[in-house]
Amino acid sequence: MDEVSLVADVGRVKGSSESRRLRSAGRVPGVLYGHGIDPIDLSVGSRELRAALTSDSGLNALISLDVDGTKHLAMARQLQRHPVRRSIDHVDFVVVRRDEIISAEVPIHLVGEALEVERADGMVEQSLHTLEVHAKPADIPNSIEVDISDLSIGEAIRVEDLKLPSGVTTDLDPEEIVVAGAATRMAVETEAEEEAAAAAAEAGAEAGGGDEG
Question: Are residues 115 and 168 in the same domain?
Answer without folding.
Answer: yes
